[in-house]
Amino acid sequence: MKESHFQSLFHHQPEKFEKASNIGNTSHIIPIIDLAIINKDPSNRLGLVDIVKKTSETWGFFPVVNHDIPLSVLVEMKNGVKWFHEMDTEAKKQFYSRDRSKSFLYKSNFDLYGSQPSINWRDSFWYLYYPDAPKPEEIPVVCRDILLKYRKHIMKLGILLLELFSEALGLSPNYLKDIGCAEGLFALCHYYPSCPEPDLTTGTTMHSDNDFFTVLLQDHIDGLQVRYEDKWIDIPPCTWHFRN
């Protein structure tokens, strides 16, 4: 395959890109879900549930702060993802697979053979957290410890969010958990390598996640957007996760 033809696989048509509409627009500020509200005073839970309900109905997306995941764990998790993707190609090659039955696999563009005309400029690794987490020896050494550590924290946060979603629906706190919504958990860890023609491609194209809900660990780099009232809204990098 010629290099020019290979690169064309990543080219996206200019008309596919839309500029965000929220620059300087204060009406496009997404409410923050501050879990310290209920940690300090459980009587505030009803008010927090109401915020979750309204934000989920209007945005379908919200930042979460004071979630009790130590900042050191978040930083180490992001570093672990980076360290894996920046290993030598030969070291990573043993983990490359498109077999979704594996607990840990490294890949690029899971929908590479789909119908879309262009693919994303992105590499990823996929890790099954629950119910059948891989054995430690199946995880690359460079990110093994943090993936196992992060699993415990993110599962706890996920359960709490399921409780809030259940209550926002007017149901008992354990409803979504009891019907099986907490029985599957996986991490999809993306890496966006340096691109020689960044104006012609994109790291992640428009999509809707196909899981029940996603907990996103954002880094310091711009680019995340969500769709709101038929317009794309920029989500600033969330470099803080705790407030006083």
From TrEMBL:
InterPro entries: DIOX_N (IPR026992), IPNS-like_FE2OG_OXY (IPR044861), IPNS-like_sf (IPR027443). Residues 30-134 form the Non-haem dioxygenase N-terminal domain. Keywords: Iron, Metal-binding, Oxidoreductase. GO terms for molecular function: metal ion binding; oxidoreductase activity. Residues 188-238 form the Isopenicillin N synthase-like Fe(2+) 2OG dioxygenase domain. The keyword Iron applies. This is Non-haem dioxygenase N-terminal domain-containing protein. It comes from Glycine max.
